[in-house]
């Protein structure tokens, strides 16, 4: 169930301040860089519809959700459908193959950021082909990113960095209904930047470079999704083109009780 509005959360201010930081960091990048200005995906998981409407009212269009059922509820909410006709949903959580159809049938689905295996890619490809057959107005391809487990943590999903090129190749060559737009990582939480750059960001950028070299792609055209509320500034400095920011905009998520 989506929780009620949190007291004291100024979503509009959060959006403005986050976009201002993105502008500042992007402006400070090397003038020789032709990377696009980073896209802000506002991560609205566990947040109520009212806060999404607030963010949308000041121009935010891209929103990220982690849980299938919650995204189903929000994408089909009457207020969202009536007041947010240009909203773009990004699914940024773990997607199981048996939940594919629930996600792909949603209105205003923009991207699946977490393609972590050939099995999932194949399932998405077949399901999108079927959807296009049943609904000819469906866009030609589904936007996806290859998720890479840069931290090596067992609880994190994603293909291993050494296998990133081959998964990208599979999507590119074997999944004609998918548009493989780039790479994504979650990375290890709580990196101490006083010790130096985040190694997970460095690993993802190496995968990005390998993919661009292997498939002769312009690096500026291959998206890099990394960085959240605590480190999106550093992520942009390292080369991120999509940042996924939640608590800086919507406030901290309530922790689950210990007995939950």
Automatic annotation (TrEMBL):
Q: Which Pfam families match?
A: Ala_racemase_N (PF01168)
Cofactor requirements of the protein: pyridoxal 5'-phosphate
Keyword Ribonucleoprotein carried by entry = no
Give start-end of the signal peptide.
none
| SUPFAM superfamilies, alphabetized | PLP-binding barrel
Q: Which GO terms describe its molecular function?
A: pyridoxal phosphate binding
Instruction: Write down the Gene3D superfamilies for this protein, in alphabetical order.
Output: Alanine racemase
- What does the UniProt keyword field contain? Pyridoxal phosphate
Q: Which residues form the Alanine racemase N-terminal domain?
A: 36-253
Question: Which CDD domains has this protein been placed in?
Answer: PLPDE_III_YBL036c_euk (cd06822)
N6-(pyridoxal phosphate)lysine-modified residues are 45
Concerning its family, UniProt says: Belongs to the pyridoxal phosphate-binding protein YggS/PROSC family.
Annotated function: Pyridoxal 5'-phosphate (PLP)-binding protein, which may be involved in intracellular homeostatic regulation of pyridoxal 5'-phosphate (PLP), the active form of vitamin B6.
Q: Which HAMAP family match?
A: PLP_homeostasis (MF_02087)
Name assigned to this protein: Pyridoxal phosphate homeostasis protein
């Amino acid at each position: 169930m989506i929780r009620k509005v949190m007291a004291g959360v100024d979503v509009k201010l959060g959006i403005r301040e986050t976009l201002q930081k993105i502008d500042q960091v992007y402006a400070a990048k090397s003038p020789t860089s032709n990377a696009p200005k980073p896209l802000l995906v506002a991560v609205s998981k566990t947040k109520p519809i009212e806060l999404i409407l607030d963010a949308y009212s000041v121009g935010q269009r891209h929103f990220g959700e982690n849980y299938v059922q919650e995204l189903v509820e929000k994408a089909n909410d009457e207020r969202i459908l009536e007041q947010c006709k240009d909203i773009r949903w990004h699914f940024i959580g773990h997607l199981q193959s048996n939940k594919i159809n629930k996600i792909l049938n949603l209105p205003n689905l923009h991207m699946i950021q977490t393609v972590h295996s050939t099995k999932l890619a194949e399932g998405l490809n077949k399901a999108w082909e079927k959807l296009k057959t049943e609904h000819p107005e469906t866009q030609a391809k589904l936007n996806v990113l290859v998720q890479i487990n840069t931290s090596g943590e067992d609880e994190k999903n994603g293909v291993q960095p050494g296998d990133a090129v081959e998964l990208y190749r599979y999507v590119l060559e074997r999944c004609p209904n998918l548009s493989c737009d780039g790479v994504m990582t979650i990375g290890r939480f709580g990196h101490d930047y006083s010790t130096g750059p985040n190694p997970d960001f460095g690993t993802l950028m190496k995968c990005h470079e390998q993919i661009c070299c292997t498939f002769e792609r312009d690096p500026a055209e291959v998206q890099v999704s990394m960085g959240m509320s605590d480190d999106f500034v550093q992520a942009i400095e390292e080369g991120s083109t999509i940042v996924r920011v939640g608590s800086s905009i919507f406030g901290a998520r309530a922790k689950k009780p210990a007995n939950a």
